[in-house]
Amino acid sequence: MPAIVLGLLAGALGWLVTVVSCGQPDSAGQVSSCRGWAFAVAAIAFVTVTVGVGLVLVLVYRSLAEWREKTK
């Protein structure tokens, strides 16, 4: 559960940063958007952070189980 929450936060942050950095006004004064890029960055950030946090949690839980086993 914590991995998904952190993944969602990373995805939202990636989307927000991409939208803000892509919003450049052109010569006519129209602000262009790059929703496709923002979605791609958000998806990549979500997957990367979710997998990374999940991996760290598995390693922490395994080390705790091994430590408890040795203390018995």
Describe this protein with a few key phrases.
2 helices; mainly alpha; 72 residues
Give a written overview of the molecule.
The chain is an all-alpha fold. It has one domain (2-71). Helices cover 81% and strands 0% of the residues. It has two helices and no strands. The chain has helices spanning 2-22, 35-71. α1 runs antiparallel to α2. The longest helix is centred in the last third of the chain and has 37 residues, at 35-71. It is rod-shaped. The chain starts with a helix and ends with a helix.
Could you outline the blueprint of secondary structure elements for this entry?
Layout: H1 2-22, H2 35-71
Helix pairs in contact: 1-2
Distance between the termini: 30 Å
Q: Shape, please?
A: rod-shaped
Please describe the biggest sheet, giving its number of strands, its sense, and whether it closes into a barrel: none
Helix content: over 70%
In terms of DSSP E residues, the strand content is under 5%
